[in-house]
Amino acid sequence: NVGMWAARYMVNHGAVLVGVVEREGSISCENGIDPEKLANYREKNKTILNFPGATSYPDSDQAFYLPCDILIPAATEKSINLHNASRIRARIIAEGANGPTTVAAEKLSLI
């Protein structure tokens, strides 16, 4: 999983993981999410929702819109599109998936 490996690497080098989006929803924690603990939690519970210390957003990609330095869309094509691109507050988008940003969203973000 590209996202988990990216999170591990970034946290090991001083970053703070403030949000995670998965199929079932998303979670956030401004104090940081430990990717190893999250991976263990997900393995046991089959979900990231209700991870201790984090706010859960069932059936939502709400964590995509958190203020952050780096957003890494790492799983799904067209995750960033014309309908949600203006809500993204990341300074850098580091694409880890195949085609996570649509052409229309990319043009919008360059304005």
Describe the structure.
The mean pLDDT is about 90. The protein has three helices and five strands, in the order H-E-E-H-E-E-E-H. About 25% of the residues lie in helices and about 20% in strands. The radius of gyration is 13 Å and the shape is globular. The strands form two sheets. The chain has a three-stranded antiparallel sheet with strand order 1-2-3, with no helix packed on it. Strands 4-5 form a two-stranded parallel ribbon. It is an alpha+beta fold and about 110 residues long.
DSSP strand count: 5
Work out the helix count.
3
The largest beta-sheet arranges its strands as: 1-2-3
The biggest beta sheet reads: 3 strands, antiparallel
Structural class: alpha+beta
State which percent range the strand residues make up: 15-25%
Share of helix among residues? 25-40%
Task: Supply database-style keywords.
alpha+beta; 111 residues; two-stranded parallel sheet; three-stranded antiparallel sheet; globular
Outline:
This protein is α+β, with helices and mostly antiparallel strands and 111 residues long. The protein has helices spanning 2-12, 35-45, 103-109, and strands at 19-22, 25-28, 55-58, 68-71, 90-93.
Topology overview:
Blueprint: H1 2-12, E1 19-22, E2 25-28, H2 35-45, E3 55-58, E4 68-71, E5 90-93, H3 103-109
Parallel strand pairs: 4-5
Antiparallel strand pairs: 1-2, 2-3
